[in-house]
Amino acid sequence: MPLIQRLGHAHTIREFRAAALLRFKEASRLALAGDRLTAIYLAGYAAEMLLKAAYFRLTGWGLMHPLQVSDIKAAKTYATATLGIPWIGTNLHDLSRWAALLVEERKYRGMAYSASMARTLGATVNRIYLNWREHLRYRANRPYQGEVATVLASVQWLLGQFRFL
Fold first, then answer.
1. How many helices (H) and strands (E) does the chain have?
2. Which residue of 36, 48, 53, 114 has the smallest Cβ count within 10 Å?
């Protein structure tokens, strides 16, 4: 059976977490090999999957509950309509907004992060988002080594803190 047919149709929190770890490992190997843009590209997607998985886990989704694109779109709508998070356009890859959604949803549920954790999460995600967008795949730029190191260290922090997100 071809790869695409073996993928299945739905994402889950468990798959997001596992894929994020794999993409991070691949990004780290690519960075060592000098393929910096691809390293940042994959690391950014790892961050996105971690933030989405953390949000859906927080809202009570089981580890194997299927997540559809419609669920991700509904989270964006909820962020804007209920929590007042400004989320412009249709971009579902906005790492800063996913981090803000996590922070605000925890407040809404009476489980707020400490001020320090909220600031650190926001700053960490912003360091990634300064260097990553999903449309990097269409570019041929050459990131500086420091940009790659910053993104990888930030994603590593998200991986290490995932159980607390």
1. 7, 0
2. 114
Rounded to whole angstroms, the Cα distance separating 19 from 82 reads 30
Residues in a beta bridge with 98:
none
Q: Which residue has the tokens 């996913």?
A: 98
Cα within 13 Å of Cα(37), Cβ side: 9
Tokens of 1: 């059976």
Query: Would you state the structure tokens that stand for residue 83, as one six-digit string?
Result: 């929590």
Task: Enumerate the H helices of 59-144 as residue ranges.
Answer: 69-81, 95-108, 115-129
Task: Tell me the three state secondary structure of residue 143.
Answer: coil
* Stretch among 79-83, 84-88, 120-124, 138-142 having the lowest mean pLDDT: 138-142
Domains of the chain: 9-164 (1.20.120.330)
Report how far apart the first and last C-alpha atoms of the chain are (Å, whole number).
Answer: 37
Residue whose pair of structure tokens reads 């780290």 in the numeric block: 28
pLDDT, tens only, 95-118: 999 999 999 999 999 999 999 999
